[in-house]
Input
Amino acid sequence: MTSTVTSCPVAIRIQEDDFDIAREIALLTENRTDIGAVVSFSGICRADEDSSKIAALTLEHYPDMAEEEIKRHVDEAISRWPLNGVTVIHRVGRFMPGQNIVLVLTASQHRKAAFEAAEFLMDYLKTSAPFWKKEESATGTGWVEAHARDDEAAARWTRS
Amino acid sequence: MKVKYFAWVRERVGKAEETIEPPATVRTVEELIAWLSGQSEAYAYAFEKPKVIRTAIDHAHVKADATIAGAREIAFFPPMTGG
Output
């Protein structure tokens, strides 16, 4: 197959190692002339959660399910938007504030599809991919609670 | 069937996975949660708020009324907080 007009390569990785956004974009767009837009979303460990200071975050996941679940949502994104490439990288392990946690790249001919698909994927990554965050702060450690606002963000993509 | 636990459900149960053999009368996810809750205080604590618990059968999310017949692997965990 030499046609690249409608191809949509998908890369999904769950890893402890950091990622290099520029390198991932280069991999996605290499030898392609059909891509006119790449949207990049990075999720980064922040120090402030509500009013408490976070010292570190630990990400636990369900290895056998995580990749399959992400793939299901990537497939849905591809069916809903004219995408020319998708990369999703989710890191696991222990993170300090400022470190990368997640990367979503969406490529399309035009920006609207790329923006929307990236947002769709992030909304579902937060609410349905099997990852859990544990916070360490001055007052102790505890599991991060899911936010209703994340469920609401994902629900707006539900088609009636 | 194999059962896996994650995050605070794992911590409360006290193990990451095990093999269980519930009686044939246990047919759905919610019945399995009720049965497990009766096995020990650790399970009762993990499943004290059954509506909060999320379940996956063979790596796909299911609802509480899903049948467990034929399931190879059932996983219980809190609402997800990744991304």
About this structure: Chain B is about 25% helix and 25% strand. The two ends of chain B are 30 Å apart (CA to CA). The mean pLDDT of chain B is 97.
